TrEMBL record:
GO terms for cellular component: plasma membrane. InterPro entries: Cys-rich_flank_reg_C, Leu-rich_rpt, Leu-rich_rpt_typical-subtyp, LRR_dom_sf, LRRNT, Wnt_signaling_inhibitor. SUPFAM superfamilies: L domain-like (SSF52058). This is Trophoblast glycoprotein-like. Residues 20-54 form the LRRNT domain. Residues 1-19 form the signal peptide. It comes from Echeneis naucrates. The keyword Signal applies.
Length: 367
């Protein structure tokens, strides 16, 4: 009887353990891992075991996640939600994951990101992957707000690669004071503005490869210099090596120690400069300023010459007037007398027309 009771208890315990794994998921208590991969799930499954530290819910059809999605999962350290077509992340979605250190939301279609979407108690989150995750420009603005409101002071790695970003809102990273790695590769960034990387004093690596940077203006160079400990990746950008790029080229030469593979940075345009090392551009294009100075001097000379010619023509005109002053004076008097005679004739006719008696006298005189 005792043995039977033990068998029943063991069977019941095994059944409970088995039942604790959600349907269509794979659970491993030994590895503290639960995987729900490509199971066509519409929501985060309920009943995920409390021992779970590594949770993979990927390749499904989950459109929205919120505070009720991850209740009771205090031990989850690594959470992967990639490739689920998630379009909305509500505020405090991950607040209950007290031990969360790594969050992967890559390959989703985020349209709406609520202000405190990434808030985690104890600020435990260290890595946030949003590669291929942002759907449009409005989601970028939502992300900027969320990064400011979500208490991510301990975040060390942020991946925003492959998002077709054209611009970055000012001070978007200003609250990520502990950030060490920022990946912005494979976007369409065309310029670095002032305050783009404000607040990232501890940044160690900034990846800007495969963007649309034709140059970095002096404002952007000052912004990069505000990251004293950061190494930069700038390869495979369409640098245009024309007049005006010299400050950037000089900065590259001065900062070679901070730029990974600086020798591999080459000009993309114009065709005559293609594949020319950016490190050599500063010496090859210094003639731009000389030509500009020559052009300015030529333009100033032209203006001076034109002024001299116009002044000379004016003097000749005044001299001609002086030589013909008597004739001009006679012509003016003649014109004055002619105008006076015409005016007196009009005045006389007006008086006759306005007085009937004068009109009759005029008629009798005509007879």
């Amino acid at each position: 009887m005792l043995n039977s009771a033990r068998c029943i208890a063991i069977c019941a315990l095994l059944c409970c353990v088995h039942a604790s794994c959600p349907p269509r998921c794979e659970c491993s208590e030994a590895a503290h891992t639960v995987k729900c991969v490509s199971k066509d799930l519409r929501t985060v499954p309920a009943g995920i075991p409390g021992y779970t530290r590594n949770l993979f819910i990927t390749g499904n059809q989950i459109s929205r996640i919120g505070p009720d999605s991850f209740k009771g999962l205090d031990n989850v350290t690594n959470l992967s939600l990639s490739n689920n077509r998630i379009s909305e992340v509500e505020s405090h979605t991950f607040a209950g994951l007290r031990s969360l250190r790594s969050l992967d939301l890559s390959n989703n279609q985020l349209v709406v990101i609520h202000p405190e979407a990434f808030t985690v108690l104890n600020q435990s989150l260290r890595e946030l992957n949003l590669s291929r995750a942002l759907y449009n420009d409005s989601s970028v603005m939502d992300l900027a707000t969320s990064l400011r409101w979500s208490s991510l002071g301990s975040l060390q790695g942020l991946d925003l690669s492959h998002n077709s970003l054209i611009y970055l809102p000012s001070r978007i990273f200003s609250h990520l004071t502990s950030l060490r790695r920022l990946q912005l590769s494979n976007n369409s960034l065309v310029v670095i503005h002032n305050s783009t990387f404000s607040g990232l004093e501890h940044l160690e690596e900034l990846d800007l490869t495969l963007n649309a940077l034709k140059t970095v203006p002096e404002e952007g160079l000052r912004e990069l210099d505000s990251l004293p400990g950061a190494a930069f990746l700038l390869g495979e950008n369409p640098f245009t090596c024309t007049c005006g790029i010299e400050p950037f080229a000089l900065w590259l030469n001065r900062s070679q120690g901070r730029i990974k593979n600086s020798e591999g940075l080459v000009c993309a345009f114009p065709a005559s400069m293609r594949n020319t090392s950016m490190l050599a551009v500063s010496t090859l294009t210094l003639g731009c300023h000389q030509r500009d100075a020559g052009a300015d001097l030529a333009l100033q000379t032209s203006y001076v010459f034109l002024g001299v010619v116009l002044g000379f023509v004016g003097l000749i005109f005044l001299f001609v007037l002086y030589l013909n002053r008597k004739g001009i004076k006679k012509r003016i008097y003649d014109m004055r007398d002619a105008c006076r005679e015409v005016w007196e004739g009009y005045h006389y006719r007006f008086e006759i027309d306005s007085d009937p008696r004068l009109s009759q006298v005029s008629s009798s005189a005509d007879v």
